[in-house]
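Handout for the seminar on molecular recognition.
Each group receives one record of this type.
Step one: identify the two inputs.
Step two: read the structure output and locate the region that could contact nicotinamide-adenine-dinucleotide.
Step three: write two sentences on what you found, then compare them with the reference statements printed after the record.
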Amino acid sequence: MTVLVTGGGGFLGSHLVDTLIAQDHRVICLDNFSTGTRQNIHHHEGNSHFRLIEADVCKTPPLEETLDQIYHLACPASPKYYQRFPLETALTAALGTKEMLELAKTRSIPILIGSTSEVYGDPLEHPQKETYWGNVNPFGPRSCYDEGKRFGETLGYIYKTQYNVDVRVARIFNTYGPRMREGDGRVMSTFFSQAKRNEPLTVFGDGTQTRSFCYVDDMVRGLILLIPHSGLPE
Ligand SMILES: NC(=O)c1ccc[n+]([C@@H]2O[C@H](COP(=O)([O-])OP(=O)(O)OC[C@H]3O[C@@H](n4cnc5c(N)ncnc54)[C@H](O)[C@@H]3O)[C@@H](O)[C@H]2O)c1
């Protein structure tokens, strides 16, 4: 199969690329390296099963290849970066997702949209069930990401119901593992950086809060298992 991975130069995307290549698929990685790095994928350079397109997902250049699947992961993901680039983040989540849904529609292929637990905002329910609609502030420092991702999901719903595109959405919770960016402000990166420096771990509040963590290999496995299943409600 030939698989397009947007955001393939990022933390999660690069592990997905590794796994797909190991499974003998051809991978087209599309990334603008705004938050990802070439280093994450440089070991695939020269591999005939790998092609890199350095581009903004909002303005994807025409793709000549036959495509079989799209994993759409391109988007700044840590508060440090999305708060530094709020407009780019909101537009990537909206226009980039529309661009990829159009591609999936034109080619009649399945698409997986990488969403986030942040669609629940500041949740009033713990743990969050998929039936929970969230508690999100549209007018604040996290809105570019939270609302952007919610809008991306809405586009997925529209393309599924109006155009019969084979869409699935993965609401990803905290994922950790190699290639996490140190100092990106996310809790696991902070813990690992502090541990490496032999410093105490910083726990905010009274320490009774709970989080859901997933190792990156398990996340990649889950995404690959999800793509044959379109699970959006009608
Ligand atoms: N890592 C997590 O814990 C986590 C949690 C929830 C959701 N997610 C989602 O998973 C996806 C990947 O997250 P990550 O942790 O690997 O982040 P990351 O920042 O490491 O990867 C995102 C990649 O997308 C690229 N990108 C950003 N904007 C782009 C654009 N306009 N055009 C092309 N490429 C662009 C970046 O350069 C980067 O390589 C994101 O969509 C994120 O919202 C991740």
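Reference statements: Residues 86-107 form the longest helix (22 residues). The domain at 2-181+213-226 is CATH 3.40.50.720 (Rossmann fold).
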